[in-house]
């Protein structure tokens, strides 16, 4: 739900509920960006939070033990802390430059690898990843790198369906699709 | 906490906690604007929500029966709905034009009176209210008009303390201070 960052809470919740209904039909988890209240209100499967959002330990208290919590991490220290605080996975990036997020530090493939090696949690790579470079990311060869997160690669394209199918095919080939 | 609308969640929560500590020392309730998650995380006394925020009934479910829920209402219909949905009070305005909120419809003293007469809940007047016009508002003569909410009148002044004391004096004179 990263596109909803500036939405009013009411509209955000409506969009979240609509997404959740679609996700349920396909057995897919829905995680809400930042807004724990919206996640609670639509009974989402979890949240994704950044380093400037609510602390992970507080989020865990609000959501209980069952919900999924993901945390954006750029460094080994942040990855370690996310694990200590009770996160379920981390997102690491930007792997490549991206227009989706302004002022976002690019960590590169080396930065991603460093964080993966330091992390006790599964890692999802994010930032400028598309069909053209997803293979390079997934072939880094670190076992806890479990997948990629994309925004532009799907939504800044002519056909979301076609691009998603292409990306899915690449990920299937690398046998590292997020489970 | 209306000044925190654009703050990142982490900073918002820190500010809310700091405010809550000060409020507790003085026996004053802290209500958080819009963000139910921040209210939950700092155990605030309640929230204030707008018509574009999360629905009151959902907020009541998330916060439980004890917390205070206030709702911004501009019409008798909204006031009625807020009561049905389990709100504790309503805020009505803008009574006068204000720079605090952009694109905010001014309802005037007549609009405020109409809403007060239709409301089963206590009403707090808001919007462009200051020392110079608070008396006109409080002397509308509707028993459930219980007080005023101010932002600019305190914070766009040289001395917040002095302006607050002046406003408090006016409200005490009208014997309609919020309890």
Automatic annotation (TrEMBL), chains A, B:
Pfam family of the protein (one): TMP-TENI
Reactions the enzyme catalyzes: 4-methyl-5-(2-phosphooxyethyl)-thiazole + 4-amino-2-methyl-5-(diphosphooxymethyl)pyrimidine + H(+) = thiamine phosphate + diphosphate; 2-(2-carboxy-4-methylthiazol-5-yl)ethyl phosphate + 4-amino-2-methyl-5-(diphosphooxymethyl)pyrimidine + 2 H(+) = thiamine phosphate + CO2 + diphosphate; 2-[(2R,5Z)-2-carboxy-4-methylthiazol-5(2H)-ylidene]ethyl phosphate + 4-amino-2-methyl-5-(diphosphooxymethyl)pyrimidine + 2 H(+) = thiamine phosphate + CO2 + diphosphate
Example of a GO MF term: metal ion binding
Pathway in which this enzyme or protein is active: Cofactor biosynthesis; thiamine diphosphate biosynthesis; thiamine phosphate from 4-amino-2-methyl-5-diphosphomethylpyrimidine and 4-methyl-5-(2-phosphoethyl)-thiazole: step 1/1
Xref: SUPFAM superfamilies: Thiamin phosphate synthase (SSF51391)
Keyword terms of this UniProt record: Magnesium, Metal-binding, Thiamine biosynthesis, Transferase
Coiled coil residues, start to end: none
One GO-annotated biological process of the protein: thiamine biosynthetic process
Classification via InterPro entries: Aldolase_TIM (IPR013785), ThiamineP_synth_sf (IPR036206), ThiamineP_synth_TenI (IPR022998), TMP_synthase (IPR034291)
Full protein name: thiamine phosphate synthase
Native source organism of the sequence: Ilex paraguariensis
Lineage, broadest ranks: Eukaryota, Viridiplantae, Streptophyta, Embryophyta, Tracheophyta
């Amino acid at each position: 739900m990263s596109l909803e960052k500036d939405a009013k809470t009411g509209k955000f919740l409506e969009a979240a509920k609509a997404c959740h209904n679609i996700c349920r039909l396909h057995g897919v988890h829905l995680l809400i960006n930042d807004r724990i209240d919206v996640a609670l209100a639509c009974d989402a499967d979890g949240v994704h939070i950044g380093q400037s959002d609510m602390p992970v330990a507080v989020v865990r208290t609000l959501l209980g033990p069952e919900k999924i919590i993901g945390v954006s991490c750029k460094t080994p220290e942040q990855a370690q802390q996310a694990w200590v605080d009770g996160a379920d996975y981390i997102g690491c990036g930007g792997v490549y430059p991206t227009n989706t997020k302004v002022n976002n530090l690019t960590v590169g493939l080396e930065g991603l690898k460093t964080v993966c090696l330091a992390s006790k949690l599964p890692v999802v790579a994010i930032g400028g990843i598309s069909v053209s470079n997803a293979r390079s990311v997934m072939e880094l060869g670190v076992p806890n790198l479990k997948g990629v997160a994309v925004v532009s690669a799907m939504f800044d394209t002519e056909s979301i369906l076609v691009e998603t199918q292409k990306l899915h095919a690449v990920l299937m080939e690398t046998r590292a699709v997020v489970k």
